[in-house]
Each structure stands twice: as C-alpha cells, then as structure tokens.
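Hey, why these numbers?
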Amino acid sequence: GQTKYLMERLFREYDKKQNRLICCRFGNVAWSNGSVLPFWLGLAKENKTLPVTSETMTRLIFTSKEAADLISYSIKLANSESKFFILSKKMKKVNMLKMAKVISEDVEIVGLRPGEIEDEDLISDEEVFFTKEIDNNYLIITPDNQVEEKLRFAEPISSRNAPEMSLQEMKEILENLDSEKRSSYILEKDY
C-alpha cells in the first residue's frame, strides 16, 4: 500500500501542463500475475489443501476487462480534467475463505503473515473530501481540489464496507478464466 501511495504522490508532483500524468487505483485483478486464484486452482487440481489466511480476510476484486475499461476511461477523462486525478472504480469485496470454498472444500486457515492485513482501503478517511462518484460507479479523486460537500463521496471505501460479491458472482469470476489459462487450471468439479 505504501509503495502505491508514493507512486501516486510522485505522479501528482510531476503532473504538468506539457506532461499530463494520471493514476488508476486498482483492487485485485482476477487472474492477473500474483492473483491467488490460479494458485488455488492449481492446488485443487493436484488435490492439495488451499491455504487461506483467515476466515474474515476480504479483498476488493474486479476483472481484467474492468481494469482495462478503467484505464481507457481515465485517458478520455484526462482531456477534460485540468489537474491531476486518480481514477478508481467501486468494486465488490470477496471473502477469501468463501472464494476458496467455491474451488475446494479442502482449505486450511494459515494465519496472517507479518505486515498482512485482513481488509484493504480503496478511499481513505482523508480522501473522502476529494472524491466523488462519476459516470456509472467510477470514483475520481482530485487531491488538489476539494469536492463540494453535496457531490462528495459519503464515506471511505474499503473491503470492510463494500458490498459483498455473491456466490454466483464468485463462480462467474472463476468461469471467466481465459481459455489459454483454463487448460492449465481446469477442474473437473462443477462450481
């Protein structure tokens, strides 16, 4: 989290009229490098136990298509925004234990690693004053311009208070594994 914060600060500092810099703030992109989903599917394919950090760990997750749409929209928005901004999207949270159990009933709670947290923030308490929702669940954070109170986002957003993904939505994320990767991770189990 801190390295992402520093990157956003650097982009903000070097955003100039002749050199526009903007940021997109992601949650976890399903099936991206580092995603736990391929790891869990690989373990399940080998009939191994899936390690889960805790029963209450939640993460904000969205698809690679949603991530690409966010980037594309931020580029379009850069033409109308004169100052630095960070663009994000409202995402649903996933209880990681529930997601693991969609893949396999053979799970083990392994506990938090040093520095690991059970939930994650998307919009902090301080950022609420600079955040508003625009065009269909996008969130624009304008650190140099405080948002009028009537337009301001009402509360911080995190995986503690985001709406939870349904079991069906979790299954859809698992089923939307691209066909190239699917052959490596396919399970005989019907989700």
Observations:
- Helices lie at 2-14, 36-45, 64-78, 96-103, 167-175, 179-185.
- The two ends are 33 Å apart (CA to CA).
- Residues 186-191 have pLDDT under 50 and may be disordered.
- The chain is about 30% helix and 20% strand.
